[in-house]
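S1.2 Input.
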Amino acid sequence: MSNKWIERADKVIMNTYGRQPLVLVKGEGCRVWDEAGKEYLDFVAGLAVCNLGHAHPEIAKAAAAQLTQLVHVSNIYYTTPMVELAEALVRLSFADRVFFANSGAEANEGAIKLCRRYSREKFGPGRHRIISALNSFHGRTMGALSATGQEKFHQGFEPLLEGFKFVPFNDLGALAAAVDGSVCAVLLEPIQGEGGVCLPAADYLKDVRRLCDEKGLLLVLDEIQTGLGRTGKLFAHEHYGLKPDVMTLAKGLANGLPMGALLASEAVAGAFVPSAHASTFGAGPVIAAAAKAAVGLLSDEKLLAEVRAKGAYVQKGLSRLQGKFPAIKEVRGLGLIWGLELDQEGAPVVAACRERGLLLNCTQGNVIRLLPPLIVGMEELDRGLAILEEALGLL
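S1.3 Output.
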């Protein structure tokens, strides 16, 4: 079907996305509308970004108020929203210090630089390599891309940056074997989101923490998709009983406005001194004000408990579908991040759901990923599961 907006876009925007044929113009809560007025239940949430749903009134109010006061002055000055947001993140996490960026990839770039600089200052030259996991995803910029353990994202951009090793996720033996005198850090996602919603074994992350302590390595956790309430804890690593040395956040941090953050302990953060790292737009007052409001809402224990309860409800519903449809090989997830691994391509399921008013996406070609806003209601979950069941019935 022809659409003037899509036709116009395809003439002027670089062809870097396999966009769905949908032009969205409005959002509220867990729903969005296209330019023709059709309503959709949104179980993508901007790829785990709009954790509090669309057009949240408290976040809109905070951003709008700041817009009339101060928009940008650069980081050569302090601003009050920046300070208040950093204080909140430190209070709520393991960290002592925060660096603000504009995206998850930029936060991961900062983490790579911080680990290398810390290791060089503490141990001298030669310890610069970072071990990350196969099937991981850490971003599209050259450093973050070089740390990503999926060759399909590397193609055409070689040579990648030197200094990264890859081992299988959930394989402590392989990780231990990869450690040598050139390694300074281990970088992992607590749950591999883009990799297909792959969860760690019960003690894996705790064992990685112990290995890092034994070898004098930094542990960096990429919580860009899993952080800020997505799993039913404010940070996913809280489920597994450990603390990292460094953590990266983005996506849900400002509920749709572009912000990333790099958090670290005092000892590690001290490797960054003036001029060692920077970000022109990092923690701009408007976005910091929105993020402060979002973090306040997302850290509420009542909300987090509701996410855990909704996650159990979704798991029960998806397990029922697995019993009904042989095409579903496995159901994986925690809180409100779920993946259905199919024995065939998932794109037809995504398209069938979209036609019926449900938005979700497919990763790794055959994993249907569900990322509803954390404020999703039980009736909306039922509606989404019913549409998904109808779409799976067409396979």
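S1.4 Remarks. The longest strand covers residues 328-334.
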